[in-house]
Fold this protein.
Amino acid sequence: MKLETISRLYVAIKRTARSQLRHPQSAAGTLLVAFFLILALFGPQLAPHRNPNDQSHDVRVPPTLDLGALQLGEHPFGTDRLGRDVYSRVILGAGSIFRIAGLGTLISVILGSALGLFMGYQGGWVDEVIGRVIDALLAIPALLLALVLIGIIRNLDFAAGSWQAALADNVILLVISVLYIPIVARVARSTTLDIKTREFVEAAQIRGESQFYIIFREILPSVIPSLVVEASLRFSYAIFLVASLGFLGFGARPPSPDWGLMVNENRGGFYQLTPWALEFPALAIAILVIAVNLMSDGIRRAVQKGT
Amino acid sequence: MSATDRNLLEVDNLTISYRVEDQWIPAVRDFRLRLQPGQIVGLVGESGSGKSTVALALMHYLSSNGRVESGGRLQFDDEDLLRKSNAEMRQLWAKRIKFVPQNAAAALNPSIKIGRQVMEVLKAAEGIDGHEAYSRMMQMFHDVNLVDPERVAERYPHELSGGMQQRVTIAMALISNPELLIMDEPTTGLDVTTEAVILDLVRGLISERDTGVVYITHNLGVVAQLCERVLVLYAGEIMEEASVLDLFQHPRHPYTLGLISSVPKPGQNKSAAQLQSIAGNPPALTRIPGGCVFAERCPLVIDLCRERKPPLETLGDGRLVRCHRWEEMEEGVLSSPPIPRPLVPPVNPPRLSGGVPQGGKGRKTLHPITSGGNWSGGNGQTLMQVSDLMKHFPVERNLREILGRTEPSPIRAVDGVDLQLRAGQTLGLVGESGSGKTTLARLIIGLEERSGGGLQLLGMDVRNSVRERSQDVLSKLQMVFQNPQNSLNPYLSVRQTIRRPLMKLRGFSAAAADAEALALLERVNLRAEYAERYPDELSGGEKQRVAIARAFASDPDLIICDEPVSALDVSVQSAVLNLLAALQDDHGSAYLFISHNLSVVGYLADTIAVMYLGQLFEVGEARELFQAPYHPYTEALVSAIPVPDPLHSSERILLSDDLPSAQNLPSGCRFHTRCPRKIGEICETDEPPWRQGDAGHLIRCHIPLEELTIAQSGLIPLDAVD
């Protein structure tokens, strides 16, 4: 990366940071996301019990967290009916949700923006055909499409070690990509439609630049701001989707410490026994989704001001 | 006009600040104004000078991040506006103080019929409703020359042309007989022809009433033609105030003089002299210098100017000037180049109709191509030849056409244009918006695919679209775009922008391209340090210089300039025009220069073509354009130019502001629906022939040239002083 690019990037980040600070709610959101990110990265080091399925503790211990005295105690969020430390499980669960939602968002932003840029720049029947396919995809309710895809792929019998098997293992990533690539593509397309009529694009055309050059060197930089905003929004939806699938039993499988799964495992009759085993993972989902939304609000504000 | 001593508006010490990122920035400082009833005071300034801020402050209508600093005085009649609450102001706005905005389309509510919007004003102002309001409205529409007022009242704003919309806003402003009218660039977005009509209207309407008008504009020509007194604003401060005659004839401030002499006058050509220009850029409002705000750009600057801010001094004759050296200005230490006058070269006394003008083969009809193209009178080989070029944009069928299985007629944006351009020459292309000049340019450059006709460059046929053209053709044809804001990629540095065509079209290595990019920057008068800047760090004029450098990078034979200076301030515009002329001398490139501003085209062009509804109507040498015989359309265009000289008075030929649709072209001569010299049925039925005049001057009209000459020679009287 060239020095000037780095300095431009630095200025952009500084401006974003400054505008985040001016709005305390988005600053709070960003800090919370950063906090969860640290949990996701260093979960195994931070959790008191590294094995989420360590059942050696007493069962149904109520939370020992004392906010007044600022003390965590032995089991801050209590233990569940199998004697697993809920606090450790929530911390360890952050990793998987960040990995799947984050990676899924990244894949859909990269592929979706490439698709959208191409459609938008090309126009004509290419745009028309892909656009209709996207419309069709978006007409199906997201969760329904996800469940159908998962159902189909999981029921296929693949040879162990084949790429299909790997795909089946990461089916949620696939689902996120299928759901969000069209949405990102639409955003990239509409911005491209605006940018491609700018005169600097025409200046590139009249010196005979290739389509690839025009799309990626001339148009893409101007599309990036709106892509960043869309990416942060997609990320919050992806977190929600991963948690929902976990809750419905289509995501991570027991006994993994998935937040959605934890909520599912502890609902119904178990809720009377160990309400904390449901409440803390549910709270984690809610806080993370809200935090990402606040952050993306801030990013949008900063980006809009910048243009 | 009543010349009472009573001031309608008295403004003193007005300082207006805007809050930007927790800081109050004084956008206008120490503003002062006196306005008498029935007077039109012009407020001139370049973009960022604070003129619109003043307008809003005079209305007491600043946005929430703006405020008037204490210590100022804003007295309207006997009301102290600064003490008024919004509720009290609303009563004044309803009746006594009115505003005409620049963008009429945005000022009118798109979902309410015109009639209801206008009558609402009456209801708010005087509580009049129903029949009485309707008849008042009809009277007002009649006064602003709206054709068919009953139908206009029944329409929605988007169904009216720009000129009609602006008439409606003027009608809305004047219908309550306001005492104070503030007009903020009301003609800026309009064509010259429409502008002339609106200015005429304003002048007439104001002289009938006792309304005081503050007229804000960047156009000195408009000021000269309309205003009694003028205030010149620069970087938020008054530089000079004077009567319009004094200001134009004896400017006391170097900035005023610079502004006046940087505007090309009609008939002024690059062959005579360079345009004067003001170097540099206005200061940023966040960093206002301690001394004189104009010091950095002033040709008369002395140390004192940088140290101490000059006071706004009152001169003997009631003029105001803010300059340490105004007395020297009075003695003529700086002089403006003489305004080329007579504007219209003296026309020989009208010949009797029997006489045949020498060289004029009036009756002979000619086609510009078959005429051998000797009209340019220049030497050099033919660079570009356009023959019968056409662009028809297909129109999507509506339901009725689908059911009736009929094809809608296409929009004929360019409909059979023949042109020739010689190497190293400039061809100016003029016409109103909608005349097809930009489409013609895009056909030549290859951004639009032609529907018919041919295009030859150096005798070789050129392919339709840029995608099919060879590298060689691409490097020979380049373009400078209208909007400097959009013509540079905001994410590429100046160096990256300029070196790309060098590498792509001339095969330079990266290192050689970098070196050449610096050389090109120097040639467009930008320092080498600009190479590492990004477009958002450049002013409009600097951006356009970079765009010009990029166009010259491939060493092209022809550069198409599509309104390259129309988005720039006058003081910057002249420098860019000079640059274009100088670069042409060095490189020998030809220009196809498109502009709606005839003076600008006249300055730069060797040959001028006048376009109307997709066809050319007149082709001739640049100086021919400003003298009879003209095509009646050219005549209207020329007469509509607001000349920046208050003594210049011309009888304007006013055209109705409706350009017919290019989908539904008039039969016969396309101009007959608006032509003031229409001779009869032949204009409606037959296409006019090309007629050849002196020096290959070609005019496409049914009227023989000698008759045109006679009819037009007395039309634009020479200036009273001559």
About this structure: The radius of gyration of chain A is 23 Å. Chain A touches chain B at residues 4, 8, 198-200, 202-209, 218, 221-222 (CB under 8 Å). Chain A has a mean pLDDT of 86. Residues 2-306 of chain A form a domain with the MetI-like fold fold (CATH 1.10.3720.10).
